[in-house]
Design brief:
This protein is 13% helix and 29% strand. The strands form seven sheets. It has a seven-stranded mixed sheet. With 538 residues, the protein is of the alpha+beta class.
Length: 538
């Protein structure tokens, strides 16, 4: 029995009876090779299917899914792995008491159970392991921790999991392991893959060695000298390299990440003659200070900032949304953003930096990609190729950017997939008030303050795929609007999602901005055209 739910105006969530049918449906849709279908994300009993509305409709995906044979089991022999655990988790005693057993009995049953990797999500290398002991079933913590150490072995619902790197999380901690769940030096960075069979064993050695979390692996800080480069004098609040993101790695729990305002990134690259998806510096709230090594051509788009250039001939102002030159030794300063949050600094030729999994995007949740820029970093610049496009003409955007003190910002949303966890009065509360952007917001998500929503349903929601723009409602009832660095899967209900065309505006919401959500019908909402995808491929 399949149930089809709206996940965004360009994504559906298909609910299945169990994990086996979910995986079978994923394989069937992959074999169907549907034009316009993106990378699918399985959950505990759901399959998230993103698609391009110009190429395929949700109804066509539904017809194909309903016609699929989901009775065929995989004949591939699974890998069998062991994970030694030191059962020293701070929640061990509390979890055991909740289950009505001693801590020793919980350890015995956890090591006796056999676990199968159902899917990978939340963070790179974080595998959801399904056990065969139904008696180990515990709720998530009512208040998630802001910091869980790498290697923590944890429980949530009927799942076990191992945190690949230090991160926030709401699972119950029962132990630690030294086995790295994520290591970019391996041919396949993720230690666990869907279908693997795992046994947890009690570690014999009581001494825990200090190890570096494999998921913290990044490219080295930008320190090398170069004849053509940009030197970071001051990085501002947060400056990172971003492109259009990394794709094709959802099976290892890796999200796409990438620029939060993709149209601004593309426009900056067009202005300096780069391919539209070339990496640029994404600057949060301004404050970046760069010095040119060798002559450079730059352009700045996105959040409105004052641009000043200083050098041996004095100080001059340069415009946004237009190319300008820096001579060797000249310095560019970005002022504080007056509207929007994120500006994009593109340099002709593009950064000469090694990609991570095919992209230069910095994912702050996963710890993937080049490290955020720091004082003294050197960003080498690639030489201009013989066939490179010429520098473009000034190209200001006509899209207004939100401010922290201005008018209310309207964002269109579609309801689902879990709006049925909230009664109509709570949906009215979602759309009938102005939400304020909290200072706790970042590239992972925009946290919103207002009158909290109350669920009409209780209990645990099995983890399922989430899209950028999803409005997840944690136990405190205050929405979190997921942005590009969001986890691939989540266990809190998603009441709705910001439509695809409004995501760049969501990525530009400054602290203090007021937001009002408007519900639209996904069947009638106009689909984004293909222009951006064509540019991304160029």
């Amino acid at each position: 029995m399949l149930r089809f739910l709206t996940a965004r105006d360009d994504a559906v969530l298909i609910e299945c009876d169990d994990l086996d049918r979910t995986i079978a449906l994923r394989d069937a849709l992959a074999d169907a090779d549907l034009d316009g279908v993106g990378e699918m994300i399985p959950g505990a009993r759901t399959l998230l299917v993103p698609y391009r509305p110009a190429a395929i409709t949700a109804r066509e995906i539904e017809r194909t899914a309903r016609a699929a044979d989901l009775s065929t089991a995989s004949t591939v022999e699974p890998r069998r792995l062991e994970i030694p655990v030191r059962y020293d988790g701070e929640d061990l005693a509390e979890v055991a008491a909740h289950l009505g057993m001693s801590a020793g009995e919980l350890v015995r049953r956890h090591t006796a159970a056999e676990y199968t990797v159902g899917f990978v999500g939340f963070a790179p290398g974080f595998a959801y392991l399904v056990g065969d002991d139904p008696g180990i079933d515990v709720p998530r913590r009512s208040t998630p921790r802001t910091r869980i150490p790498a290697g923590s072995v944890a429980l949530a619902g009927t799942y076990s999991g191992v945190y690949p790197r230090e991160s926030p999380g709401g699972w119950q901690l029962i132990g630690t392991t030294e086995v790295p769940m994520w290591d970019l030096a391996r041919e396949r960075p993720a230690f666990l893959a869907p279908g693997d069979v795992v046994r947890f064993t009690e570690a014999a050695d009581p001494e825990r060695e200090t190890v570096r979390a494999a998921a913290d692996a990044r490219t080295a800080p930008l320190e090398a000298s170069a004849d053509s480069a940009l030197v970071v004098v001051a990085p501002g609040i947060q400056s990172t390299l971003q492109d259009l993101g990394r794709t094709g790695h959802a099976g290892m729990g890796v999200s796409s990440s990438g620029a939060l305002d993709a149209p601004a990134l593309r426009r900056a690259n067009r202005l300096v003659g780069n391919p539209a998806g070339t990496a640029a510096v994404e600057v949060g709230y301004g404050g970046l200070h760069l010095r040119a090594t060798g002559p450079q051509v730059l352009a700045v788009t996105g959040a409105a900032v004052a641009l000043t250039v200083s050098g041996t001939v004095g100080v001059r102002e340069v415009p946004m949304d237009a190319p300008f030159a820096l001579d060797d030794g000249e310095e560019l300063r970005l002022g504080t953003a007056t509207s929007g949050v994120r500006s994009y600094v593109a340099v002709r030729g593009g950064p000469d930096v090694l990609p991570v999994l095919g992209s230069l995007a910095t994912d702050v949740l996963a710890g993937l990609g080049p490290a955020p820029l720091g004082p003294g970093d050197v960003l080498p610049v690639l030489p201009v190729s013989s066939g490179q496009a010429p520098v473009g003409a000034p190209d200001p955007s006509d899209r207004p950017l939100p401010s922290g003190t201005g008018d209310v910002v309207p964002l269109d949303i579609v309801l689902g997939p879990r709006d049925d966890w909230f009664d109509p009065g709570q949906i009215d509360r979602l759309t009938g008030q102005d939400w304020t952007v909290s200072p706790r917001s970042n590239r992972v998500g925009v946290r919103l303050d207002g009158v909290a929503l109350e669920r009409s349903r209780t209990g645990e929601l099995p983890s399922e795929g989430c899209v950028a723009g999803a409005l997840q409602i944690p136990p405190d009832g205050l929405p979190v609007l997921f942005l590009a660095d969001h986890p691939l899967t989540g266990g809190y209900p998603v009441v709705g999602a910001v439509v695809a065309r409004d995501l760049p505006t969501a990525g530009q919401l400054p602290v203090g901005a007021r937001v009002r959500f408007r519900v639209v019908d996904p069947a009638q909402h106009p689909s984004p055209d293909d222009t951006q995808e064509q540019e991304a491929a160029s």
